[in-house]
Design brief:
Helices cover 34% and strands 16% of the residues. It has seven helices and six strands; from the N terminus they run αβαααβαβαβββα.
């Protein structure tokens, strides 16, 4: 199976990029990087061809493919395709029709069975921009630095595994951005910011944000920081435009004690900066 390299639209381009991601599972020993090699890569959650703003995380959660007990999701619970769901013994057997089905499961993610516990808090931060993961008219999407789900969490991967995954994946993200109208990326947390900087070989402007401080009873409060910048390249990919970066150091889903006032302040900051960029 081969998607045509003759690109007539951004949608065609995204299909070609997805095919290359899948081919890499067969061509490279990704199992040494703890990649779940029976799971399809997820280049985006939502449709990047309809979005001007996207949030960015590290890599897809294994919970997109398995239950809390570790068994593969199936039937109405299934979110994305796997070798099992497609009836394949290996990714080398993938047909063009199946490739398109994988692509659709990504672009239509938020109208099916999204992992709301993770995405709803992130979507709330975009509410001031009028864009939403869940809106077909004013659509936002989510991207990950790494399109491959791993069997263990990012923090527990070995350093060389994280480095290898970042090297393999950075160019893919650059291509996704190149063939999309996305103008703003919102980086979710310090770890995402730091790895994004490494992938692009840049340093973003870092500013302390007093309103984002997380109080602690022992007095060791966690400071809040914003990050801003812009990129036009990612790895060896010339994106062909400026993409503006907004980020914050707290991980909205997992940072303990992120208060509603801090979330509101981050949301208002994103809204204001996005308006300045887009107007």
């Amino acid at each position: 199976m081969r998607a045509s390299d003759h690109i007539e639209s951004t949608s065609d381009a995204q299909l070609v990029i997805l095919q290359r991601m899948i081919s890499l599972i067969s061509e490279q020993p990704l199992h040494t990087l703890d990649v779940i090699n029976w799971a399809a890569p997820i280049p985006y959650f939502g449709d990047p061809c309809k979005a001007t703003i996207a949030t960015v995380g590290l890599n897809p959660s294994d919970r997109e493919f398995v239950s809390s007990e570790g068994t593969e999701l199936n039937d109405s619970s299934r979110r994305f395709h796997t070798l099992t769901s497609l009836g394949l013994a290996s990714w080398n057997e993938l047909t063009l029709e199946q490739l398109e089905s994988i692509h659709t499961s990504c672009t239509e993610y938020f109208s099916r069975n999204p992992y709301d516990a993770w995405f709803k808090p992130l979507d709330l931060l975009l509410s001031g921009t009028n864009d939403s993961f869940y809106s077909p008219l004013f659509h936002a999407c989510h991207l990950d630095l790494i399109p491959y789900a791993t069997g263990i969490k990012w923090a527990f991967l070995k350093t060389w595994q994280r480095d290898s995954l970042l090297t393999i994946s950075a160019g893919f993200l650059g291509q996704v951005l190149k063939y999309s109208p996305i103008k703003i990326l919102v980086l979710n947390g310090k770890t995402v910011v730091e790895n994004f900087e490494r992938a692009c070989d840049v340093s973003f402007r870092k500013e302390p944000m007093e309103a984002w401080c997380l109080p602690r009873k022992n007095g060791n409060h966690i400071s809040g920081f914003s990050y801003e910048g812009k990129i036009s390249r990612m790895a060896d990919i010339n994106i062909g435009k400026d993409v503006y970066i907004l980020g914050y150091n707290h991980n909205i889903q997992s940072s303990y004690g992120v208060t509603s006032s801090v979330r509101t302040s981050i949301q208002e900051w994103i809204s204001q900066r996005a308006k300045e960029i887009l107007n």
